[in-house]
Description:
Elements: E1 2-5, E2 7-8, E3 17-23, E4 28-33, E5 38-43, E6 49-55, E7 60-65, E8 73-77, E9 80-84, E10 90-94, E11 104-111, E12 117-123, E13 131-136, E14 143-149, E15 152-157, E16 163-168, E17 173-179, E18 185-193, E19 201-207, E20 213-218, E21 222-226, E22 232-237, E23 243-249, E24 255-260, H1 267-272, E25 280-283
Parallel strand pairs: 1-22
Antiparallel strand pairs: 2-25, 3-4, 4-5, 5-6, 7-8, 8-9, 9-10, 11-12, 12-13, 13-14, 15-16, 16-17, 17-18, 19-20, 20-21, 21-22, 23-24, 24-25
Amino acid sequence: MQEFEASAISTERFELGECCRWDDVRAELSWVDVPAGRFYRARTSRSLSIIRTYQVDGFLSAVAPFAQRSEGWIVGTNQSIAHLHESGDMVELARPEAPNAPDVRMNDGACDPWGRFLVGSMALDVAPGRGSLYRFESGREVEALFSSVTVSNGLGWSPDRHTMYYVDSGPGTIHTFDVDDAGNLGEKKLLLHFDPTGVLTPDGLCVDEEGCLWVAFWDGGEVRRFAPSGEQLARVALPVSRPTCCALGGDSGTVLYITTAWEGLSDERLTKEPDAGRIFSVDVGVKGLAINSFATTSFE
């Protein structure tokens, strides 16, 4: 099994860094700080340099680019799906969790290879079964793919597009779904299960060009690489306990970027983890897949 060690590359610390993404078109890294309602874009050629910060009211949990990059991003915020323009203006598109406001909010999300935005939700008190996974595409109503989720989290697709990976952090599960040529979900299968009472909780993930998963483990202090069979192939150690999400990119395409959090850590833990909340990176020698984007031109 390969062993790696990640190093901090940001000076700023984020309460709940999440939704780490490498945009190969813009050649930049992006992420959010969920409770702060901020979206960050940065260059990473030699060191991490933030080039733009966007602020929204409330929570901002998921961001995916439009296929036409000048159109901005589709985002998950509070109980809504919205269009965030490059100017910083935001237009609400749908409110799938409005009936459950303010107790339930949107969480992690990503676009599928067919250009549709999938975004999940969770209860603020992490109550079991109150979350859902939604799919949104231009010209259609929001579709609830399934409910009874606790903490809807990492999403990814295999290089051949016939498998979707999905994390529910509440019960500590990673499932696979068969996917047909139109992107519709088929049979659901359990790939990995981690005891939710333990210290390893799967969170965000990314998929590399070899079809393997890189999964961040909240309270586990590491990212693990798994084969599609579920076999563990590599481990990335961090000096902080709460990695949240990861993305492959950079100039070489082989740099693993990792967001982390200091949310919920005691003063004692924070003293022991001065880098909690920073962005980390390490070259792992394998490239990631190009980011999926939202397929539309405009909503207005």
